Amino acid sequence: MTIRYNQEIPTARFCGFLKLLFRWKGSIYKLVYFELAVFCVCHTILSLCYHLAMGNAQKRLFEMVATNCDKFSDNIPISFVLGFYVQRVISRFWEQFQTIPWPNRMAIYVSTYLQTNDESGRLMRRTIMRYLCLAFVLTMSSISPPIKKRFPTLTHMTEAGFLLPNEQNALENISTASNKYFVPLIWATSVVARARKEGKIKSDLAVQRLVAEINDFRGNCGGLFSFDWVSIPLVYTQVVTLAVYIFSLTALLGRYQFDVRNGSDASTEKHFPFFTLLQFLFYMGWLKVAESLLCPFGEDDDDFDINLLVDRYLHESYMVVDEMFNKLPDLLKDQHWDQVDFEIPYTEAAAIHKKQIFLGSATGMEVPTEKQAFIPREVSLQELKSGSSLKVLSIHSIKPIKPSKKLRPKKAAAGGEEINTSKDDLESIGSSGIIKVYDVPSAPNESTVTKPKVEGAAPGTASDVADEGVPVKSSSSLMAIIQDELKDLRAKK
């Protein structure tokens, strides 16, 4: 069960899959050899009858039927119908595997939260895990023929160690028409509640975590039961089966070497029907793949090995909660205790796999220094597209302007608009540490405006920069931007 071949193709190489074509167990040949043999025998019999037992009139009738069947076989959408069906079956196959419950996480929780070294605590830990394994066996015995053959009755489960005699009696005395796989999980929650009541579990949070894990285990068991309960609709399976077998019948009746008449060969396929057999092999093999994977809990070569899981679950559960309980190696300093930057060694065989640490595809990208300035929010996208440039002057060292200094507004020269400033405006601009200077495309009536000067300010401050006469090309749009910025500053104050 579950044919494994990954060890034969760990690395892609020339004709790597060809070696898999010579395996028999789990192969396509094992699935379709009987149908392929029947097809070849029937084709040979009809061909011999045509050439040896039929008269001219019968041959013409047979040729007419064969020609029509050959044309009809091309009109069957078998690739579409069969491909979609197999894809859905394979998806369902993998979903069922992912639904299989695993008790390992619950065993770790039980070993962590039920920390008592006495015999009662050991008994509780082992009993909880045995109940989970019992629930899994009860579920699989109702949907998997191999497990049902191994454990046909509760007595067999008792002899195998999943049940005790008193528990078997209690399970048999429960009168219900439903599947009883959930009963051991109820018993497990009762053991958890009893452990909390006796103080063997220290907190209610631990109880909540254990009960939640038991519920997850129950949900997975119920999911497997639901997969067995609700299958792919029968009508879809019938449609796909009819399409494959009708195609096979038309290919059987329509692919022959006909007699030559009037110098022309009416044969659709000469001598041996090689390509017809290939078509039959592919389509019938496709259908057999779906048939094999539709119920992965059976006895096919690629079905899940549930018996192996049954053996593994109980052994690992007891090992975690009993044999490994509170058995920890001595805590010692590791080999890299005093090292921060160290390298994990490679063997000579693995040295070719050593690579540099990946830091991201944009790590080596360089942004020009002149393009690293942030764009103020006041500049619109239209102004940027029209060619306006932006300069940002960083003056984080500027000290805030003292309120006691007198500030006077400056007027624009040559008829320019007046920039109304106040003490609070300049104090806010000085505190922000950023002076924005805009270069706007030249306008017909532009003029040079001298920035406002703050009297008494220290050298290197905003007033000092203004005294240097930094030219600002003025326009109506620029004045509007400056006025809006000053209004925002006043509103914030």
How would you characterize the overall build of this protein?
The structure is a single chain. With 493 residues, the protein is mostly helical. The protein has helices spanning 28-53, 56-73, 78-99, 104-113, 119-143, 145-150, 154-160, 165-172, 183-197, 204-229, 234-254, 274-293, 306-323, 381-385, 423-432, 462-467, 476-492; strands at residues 260-261, 264-265, 389-394, 434-439, 448-449, 472-473. It has a two-stranded antiparallel sheet. Strands 3-4 form a two-stranded antiparallel ribbon. Helix 2 (56-73) runs antiparallel to helix 11, helix 5 packs parallel to helix 10 and helix 11 packs antiparallel against helix 12. Mean pLDDT is 79; it is low at 262-268, 389-423 and 425-474.
Q: Beta fraction of the residues?
A: under 5%
Helix content: 40-55%
Major sheet summary line: 2 strands, antiparallel
Give the helix/strand class. mainly alpha
Q: Give the low-pLDDT segments.
A: 262-268, 389-423, 425-474
Topology order in helix (H) and strand (E) letters: HHHHHHHHHHHEEHHHEHEEHEH
> Count of helical segments?
17
How would the global form be characterised? Answer: extended
Mean pLDDT figure: 79
Oligomeric state of this protein: single chain
Radius of gyration: 42 Å
- Quote the distance from N terminus to C terminus: 78 Å
- Main-sheet strand order equals 1-2
